Amino acid sequence: MTTKPNVKTCPKCHGEKPLEKFMYADKLRSYCNNCERQQTKWRIARPENRLRTALKDAKRSAAKYGAVDTLTLDDLRYLFTVANGRCAYSGAFMSAPSVEHVKPLSKGGTNSVDNILIVENALNKTKKDGDPAEFIDQHYGFAVTREIIELLAARRGIDFDVVYAEFEDAQAEYSNEFYRKLIGGAGR
């Protein structure tokens, strides 16, 4: 059997293609670009790999802000299992789940089970590092805020009132920061 120069057969799709259509043309076992991309999409979409990516991103953020970091892969497995595919804020099934730090890492939050919810990625990006109570109240109402406070209190094994007080303190700090920016920006 003779082989054509600058042509290779993809072992996955069995298509004969020019070498420039291969990502790693010099390797014996490389697939064509299309097959490599498809395989990468499947690999990334696996639930276990989504968890690993979420953990890596959360740990990177914790390191950036110098936050306490006790989160493990098993913790994330637990949180994703408990979430059961539903967003903690909206209650809807998620297409792109993400790790949400209730108290933002940039404002002293921890990267631990008792500070994390699983939410839709779009909502996580909307909240950014804003105040959790205000965000939840504005978008979903007090009932959801109460459920989240109860959930966090149960995870931490402390009384509802303690977590509620933390939410109140965070709200007060957020408001003070907002007013400082407002007054400072008025050209005083």
TrEMBL record:
Matches recorded under InterPro entries: HNH_nuc
Listed name of the protein: HNH endonuclease
Species of the source: Sporosarcina aquimarina
